[in-house]
Amino acid sequence: MLSEFDLIKQYFDRPAGSGPQRAVLGIGDDCALLAATSGMQTAISSDMLVEGRHFFAGEDPRRLGHKSLAVNLSDLAAMGARPVGFTLALALPAAERDWLHGFSSGLFALADAHDCQLIGGDTTKGPLNICITVFGAVAPGRALRRDAAQPGDDIWISGTLGDARLALAGLRGEVALDAAAQAAAATRMHQPTPRVALGVALAEQGLARAAIDISDGLVGDLGHILARSGVGATLDVDALPAGPVLARQEQRLRRAFSAAGGDDYELCFTADAAQRERIVAAGAACGTAVTRIGRIEALAGLRLVDGAGAPLDLALAGFDHFA
Amino acid sequence: MLSEFDLIKQYFDRPAGSGPQRAVLGIGDDCALLAATSGMQTAISSDMLVEGRHFFAGEDPRRLGHKSLAVNLSDLAAMGARPVGFTLALALPAAERDWLHGFSSGLFALADAHDCQLIGGDTTKGPLNICITVFGAVAPGRALRRDAAQPGDDIWISGTLGDARLALAGLRGEVALDAAAQAAAATRMHQPTPRVALGVALAEQGLARAAIDISDGLVGDLGHILARSGVGATLDVDALPAGPVLARQEQRLRRAFSAAGGDDYELCFTADAAQRERIVAAGAACGTAVTRIGRIEALAGLRLVDGAGAPLDLALAGFDHFA
């Protein structure tokens, strides 16, 4: 049986040179120590993933390692902050080597790709629970806040929407998908891609005003921008870029799952109309599609319209963990 | 039923002016934003508390709120870092108002006492799990690291040891305690006092070299200092300051529970012998007793001795969550 200390040493405390080194002092003391990046603010986000809630029991550990960090990096992306480091607190029913190897491999592959160092954490026995707190650097005044949208702003979305929700519907038997379609859609559910490069570009080049990452569904998450900015919006539901698998489904599903699917981890952001060309260029430079999907307005509330501008009532709701 | 957003708003997102304000941007965005304290490093620690492992099912929520933050502040104390802020990730079986009121009251009472702001976090449904990540400020080169002990250093301990372990023994029926003794000892288990002022004084005045907080038992935790510093030590077990309830128990229990009890959250630190008077004065200024309990030596290993200097074999072990 692995001890707690051996577990950390073997799977999470990597020798110098084998990963990004951002901390003055990393794993192994009471605290980690980070030196401030000169003149920068620190963006901080915590996400907790619970078995049976955020992922299925028996989930592949490598995918789970990826996703656990991806949802946190997505929060940094939504602020336009560059990843620096993260802590990992992990409750495990048992210390199983295969699981730990897979989980840490998936975690570090994504961490290394974003130059983000595991600097500390905690391990304990308990029902499977993964809590990551991530740290990023952003210049003062440059962060993409939820309260910064202005009437007249375009609303943009990165990538595509709805395939993660479609995969869930397939697993639940709500929708019949063939095996290839199910597998393709499931990749979006299990392996979300945090849009870090795009978020950083939008912030550092001053292209966007407000931003949020889409975890609970576009309509619900955009609602947070509207509420905190004291504005409203009109959203063209037929302009929403459906994921490649969802795009082949009937219109009712396309509209519902792209507007309120959840687990997309795309960036929704608002920007002055004068920035359109530069935003398209920034997306191209990052290899991330960007699509204009609506407009911020002074009138409160979110108005959904179809491609012809006619009102749509999709009876959608964001995801609430206690609903 | 409380929604996730109402839960955060009602119990955790306090209006400006009702608590410490340390963040540029707090609860309600994708990330919190902290401005760097000029020239300071950020000390970061995460602890995860699991029901049935770190506390009993049905634990009083106010005490639990206190303890959840206390164990994290204790990590800052062990680095000599001043508390700045923390994130809270919380998995709850259900959103119960009484529980949330008690938990948040206990949490914020301690947070306010240490000028430490809740800046963000996450809430979800799941088996009860509390994960706090805490942030502190410490000047470069001043942090009390585990790898800094030197042969010849005195070994010191703050406060008293063993009452938390005694309370656990009483609850388990391993020791017979009367109700008053059980209640008094239990306070140490449920309401640990993080030694923040002492840790900060030791670091800022340059009085101590290495430090660690005692969560898993003195012998085991001191062992981390010895391993990382590449030194050994002799510990005078009869010099260990037993808690007031433990002090009335037989010698065997006094020795075992003060040397390896766990859940004490006292500071063990090493210091040059020339600092003795200033350390006693710093302890007095903080209202925290400090006691010399041994000496760091070049010879590897930890030697336990009695008050007469004769070797003791207590057959102790630190606490390992996966043992």
From TrEMBL, chains A, B:
Binding site for ATP: 121-122, 146, 215
GO terms (BP aspect): thiamine biosynthetic process; thiamine diphosphate biosynthetic process
Catalysed reactions, semicolon-separated: thiamine phosphate + ATP = thiamine diphosphate + ADP
Ranges where the PurM-like N-terminal domain occurs: 28-138
Key words of the record: ATP-binding, Kinase, Magnesium, Metal-binding, Nucleotide-binding, Thiamine biosynthesis, Transferase
Binding site for Mg(2+) 3: 30, 75, 213
Residues bound to Mg(2+) 2: 47, 75
InterPro entries: PurM-like_C_dom (IPR010918), PurM-like_C_sf (IPR036676), PurM-like_N (IPR016188), PurM-like_N_sf (IPR036921), ThiL-like (IPR006283)
Enzyme Commission number(s) from the entry: 2.7.4.16
Annotated Mg(2+) 5 binding sites: 216
Positions with a binding annotation for substrate: 54, 263, 319
Annotated pathway: Cofactor biosynthesis; thiamine diphosphate biosynthesis; thiamine diphosphate from thiamine phosphate: step 1/1
Gene3D superfamilies in the cross-refs: PurM-like C-terminal domain (3.90.650.10), PurM-like, N-terminal domain (3.30.1330.10)
Protein name stated in the entry: Thiamine-monophosphate kinase
Lineage: Bacteria, Pseudomonadati, Pseudomonadota, Betaproteobacteria, Burkholderiales
Protein encoded by which gene: thiL
